[in-house]
């Protein structure tokens, strides 16, 4: 469990620099340069992610159950993951209405991903992992929207065709992950096959 906690601290602290320490981040970049910031950010993030994956895997070998989620929550999680994947893809497709309306669809997608998994899993490791990401995504979304308003950013031009691209690509990613990748990576078959 220690590796999971340390990994979460490393990964989420680097990804929270703009949320909690934007001035310090800017000072670091001004002093050392953007490339050194990106290198340090990437190294700490990769180490953190590795510890999260390893620590979560170790915690699953001897789980501490806080509750036993009803079976229907697993079906709900599968359904929630479809819009979560669409929102994640929409973050990278320019000109979507999702991005114009939400501003930061990735945070919304991470919130749905974390909530879906938090509802359908009841171990301490699950609460730590998915609860931490849910709290981070909420804080990140609020912070990013506040920065947008302070900068006076107006919603970008959008086209429904771009949303269709995000929806199709997100749906394909959802299907591929649920059908082919989730079992080998996590040992759970979301679609029951």
UniProtKB/TrEMBL annotation:
Supply the alphabetized keyword list: Membrane, Transmembrane, Transmembrane helix
Q: What is the species listed in this Swiss-Prot or TrEMBL entry?
A: Pseudothauera lacus
Q: Name one GO cellular component term.
A: membrane
Q: Is Transmembrane included in the keywords of this UniProt record?
A: yes
UniProt cross-references to InterPro entries, sorted A to Z: NnrU_dom
Q: What is the protein's membrane topology class?
A: Multi-pass membrane protein
Question: What is the protein named?
Answer: NnrU family protein
Domain named NnrU is located at: 4-190
| Spans through the membrane | 37-56, 76-98, 118-143, 164-182
Q: Where in the cell is it found?
A: Membrane
């Amino acid at each position: 469990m220690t590796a999971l906690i340390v990994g979460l601290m490393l990964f989420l602290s680097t990804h929270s620099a703009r949320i909690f320490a934007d001035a310090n981040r800017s000072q670091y970049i001004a002093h050392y340069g953007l490339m050194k910031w990106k290198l340090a950010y990437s190294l700490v993030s990769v180490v953190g992610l590795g510890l999260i994956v390893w620590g979560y895997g170790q915690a699953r070998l001897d789980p501490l159950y806080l509750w036993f989620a009803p079976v229907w929550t697993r079906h709900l999680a599968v359904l929630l993951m479809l819009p979560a994947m669409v929102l994640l893809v929409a973050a990278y497709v320019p000109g979507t209405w999702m991005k114009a309306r939400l501003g930061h669809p990735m945070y919304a997608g991470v919130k749905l991903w974390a909530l879906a998994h938090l509802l359908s899993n009841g171990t301490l490791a699950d609460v730590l992992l998915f609860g931490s990401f849910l709290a981070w995504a909420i804080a990140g979304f609020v912070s990013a929207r506040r920065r947008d308003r302070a900068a006076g950013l107006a919603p970008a031009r959008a086209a429904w065709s771009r949303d269709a691209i995000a929806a199709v690509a997100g749906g394909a990613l959802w299907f591929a992950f649920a059908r082919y990748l989730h079992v080998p990576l996590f040992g759970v078959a979301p679609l029951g096959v």
